[in-house]
Design a protein that fits this description.
single chain, 9 helices, 75% helix
């Protein structure tokens, strides 16, 4: 059990585990987007795409390329620091099952407000599925991996806090930003404090899961949660 906990949280397994999610999302974008490809881009995509354009990296798939390069760099770093890089199939299966568990827990925690993490905006069902896949991958990469690490490092530098305190404070701040980002852009929601608070709580849950269980499980839990919500929306006319 101890080996599973440490292995499943490692960057090595997170990289391997999220590759299928990355591929499915990119294939989905190509297959269903057509001329409406920007509909599939949420606040995280818009923000990172603007940053990339500042550095001369343009195009619809600049963000995707950046994420993949980041994953690959993490994987290569892990290979030099991890004593064992032989894949354990049971660990990957366990991570998938655990992702379903946390997604279900998240669903029941937010059962009264199922639309908290989804932002359909009237797009087609297939596009909503692709959006759900991308939300888990890209939003978790930005708001959990990058922001928690970045804010935590800044707090440590400025206030000389312990790493754990900086990390959890960074998680709290990133949850605020995560919620706010759902209200920006052409496809963002109109701001309502109750909706902000709900998404902030969702950010706290996902942020805590990321710190405790790593990126891979959190990304899948987010995507699976969105797919559960989407299924409920279509079966009961939510």
């Amino acid at each position: 059990m101890k080996d599973y906990y440490s292995l499943s949280k490692s960057p090595f397994y997170s990289f391997i585990f999220t590759i299928p999610l990355f591929i499915l999302y990119e294939i989905g974008v190509i297959a269903v987007a057509d001329d409406d490809i920007y509909i599939l881009r949420n606040g995280a995509d818009v923000f990172l795409r603007q940053i990339l354009e500042t550095f001369g990296v343009v195009g619809l798939y600049g963000f995707s390329g950046l994420v993949f390069v980041g994953f690959l760099a993490t994987f290569m770093y892990q290979r030099h620091t991890w004593e064992e890089t032989t894949l354990n199939r049971n660990t990957l299966i366990g991570m998938l099952l655990e992702s379903f568990f946390w997604a279900i827990m998240l669903y029941f925690s937010l059962a009264k407000v199922m639309l908290t993490l989804m932002n359909p905006n009237g797009v087609m069902m297939t596009q909503q599925v692709v959006l759900a896949l991308g939300a888990g991958l890209y939003e978790e990469f930005l708001f959990r991996v990058l922001l928690i690490a970045g804010i935590g490092a800044l707090l440590t530098l400025l206030f000389q806090w312990k790493e754990s305190l900086s990390k959890w404070t960074g998680m709290f701040i990133s949850a605020i930003i995560f919620s706010l980002f759902h209200f920006i852009g052409d496809f963002g929601d109109d701001f309502h404090f109750n909706l902000f608070l709900i998404r902030f709580v969702a950010g706290l849950i996902l942020g805590s899961l990321y710190i405790l269980r790593g990126f891979g499980i959190t990304a899948y839990a987010h995507s699976i949660y969105d797919l559960i919500v989407l299924t409920r929306m279509t079966t009961i006319g939510y």
